[in-house]
Amino acid sequence: MKPPQKRRVSLARVKLQSNTVFRMNILFFTIFLLFSVLILRLGFLQIVKGEDYARAIARTEEVPVNTSVPRGRIFDSEGRIQVNNTPVNAITYTAMQTTKREEMLTVAKELAKLIEKDDDKVTLRDKQDFYIQMNTESANKKVTDEEKAAIAAEDIPEKEKQRKLDALVREKITDEELATLSAEDLEVLAIYREMTSGYALAPQMIKNEDVSDEEFARVSERLTDPKLKGVNTVTDWKRVKSSDLTILGSTTTPETGIPANKLEYYLARDYSRNDRVGTSFLEQQYEDVLQGQKSVVKNVTDGRGSVIETIPVDEGKAGKDLVLSIDSELQSELEKIVEDKLLQLKAGPSSKLVKDAYLVMMNPQTGEVLSMVGKRLGKDENGKQIINDYAFGSFTASHEMGSTVKGATLLTGYSQDAVELNEVQIDEPLKFAGTAQKNSIFNTRLFNRIPMTDLMAIERSSNVYMFKIAMKIAGAEYQYNRGLYVSPESFATMRNSFAQFGLGVKTGIDLPNEATGYMGGTSPGAKLLDLAIGQFDTYTPLQLAQYISTIANDGYRMEPHVVKEIREATRDGESLGPIETIIEPKILNRINNSQEEIEQVQKGMRNVYVGSSGSARAQFSDAPYTAAGKTGTAEVYFYEKDHEMNGQYAINIAHVGYAPFDNPEIAYAVVIPYVTTDPKNVPKANNEIARAAADKYFKLKNKEAQAASNSIKPPYSASVEVEGE
Fold first, then answer.
1. pTM (2 decimals)?
2. Could you list the active site residues?
3. 8 A C-beta contact, residue 665 and residue 631
């Protein structure tokens, strides 16, 4: 008989073995069930859902891609091309959604064997990133574990940490290491940087300038080569101007793309980063019209992101064309007049400061700008004197215009009951306490008194007549050698009235960045008198042209514009497209004067040209057409920081006029700042330019009329015109 203790141990061992077997059976059964479920699930996926998933793998994705269309062209008023699109060979690259940087680099290396690409646009950052990509392991080792740990410990987003780490790696790349990049490496980099500058499925311009026929052929022959996957040869276009006229504006290139300061603005309007956009003047002002509607294609991709088909969705439309109000023949002829006179002035005495001259001609009844001339003297790289186009200075640069504004002063006096029609005032030198004597040029002797009507005041350009109008507006009386106090409201009254003519306010020209000029303060009181004769506030040449147009047009101020039509893109390339929009004349306001008052000023301006004391009689009395106008000189000081003649006393000259007198077709303004530093010998170049410009207009108008035609004409060439006469 076994002892009781041994029996209990034996029973426990048997029980333990029984439990273990039971548990193992449960485990094996559970595993069996799991494998059964897995097999059933796999069977379900393969048998029941197999076709669905196969279709999903093969499913295509349609991705719309905008492609550029030719930009609208610009023509002059006669249909002569001013800005055109010239076709050029180009090489592009389109990355897939799944394309990796390493694949792009491989394509760039292969493409570099077929084309030449300048590396002048490669930046230091490009070289650093390229070196790091070529030597990733050794470059990353330059950053110590301590530096990595310090960045990792910063409380900033992970993306920012990575940016800081990348920047630190770049900093540690030495100039010596960058110098190891060969010329071949830099050419590859130049291509590679263009490939990586845009979005997937958006064509990037690799080269579109000076692509030789050989390069174009070599790349075209290998378009099916897997090593050049994504490369294509296309016909691109290049913006070409046939005129130096700056107001035509400029555009970016595919390389520069959208300016950084306007990136969000254009991207929100479905532009691509490398799109060409207008950056100045007409190209900028009419961007929405000139840009056109992009063609849209859909790249059909498979499940791996590879493009398997390209489907046209919208052919798009080329940009609309602009037809200007400017006649390029008239513009060219007037430019020559201004250039010749500017060179003549510069060669004369006391002319060290003269460098600009302006001439604006417009139709006073419609606001159409017929010519906008601005010329500036400069030096080329060899120090030789040249003349640059500075037409935009006509509406961005302002100057004291002198007596040309006296028509506005007289009309202001009428409207403010400060003077009556044919009223006689005494022209006499005025002396106020603390100021120099103020007088008319023709009457400088103190206490010399000359009776003068309003008509005579315009004809002879009486400063004192205008001074007395200003004092009457201010409610001030002249007392010899006493001070002159006028209220600030008097300045506001004068300026508000001048604004009706376009002086001191924007004209509304359809060009960006128009200046309004400088508005002086409201003290001392004598400055109100200077304001009345155009020697305080400053105005642009375009404002001056709008001012004289308002007088010529019986008091109606017209909005000036340089575009007269917007047309659909031409279909045949030989004739202008259908008119979409005609820019209609726009009246901005009518001045607060009666027709009788306006006609009185018109008569006075007519006398300036033909009267016995007219300041422009010598230039206009024998004109074969009727005309009227006003001359002006202004005493000014030249201010230009660091210039050797900063603070120098000088003279501005100006001229405004219109013709014919009874039914004006043209109004013109001439401005030459700092024409001389000698007030005793002021040249009459302003009057001479005005006469020559009016003569030229009527001469061209009277040429044998050509039959109206919508045909596109080549750019105006003075030599061609001469040969045809």
1. 0.83
2. 403
3. no
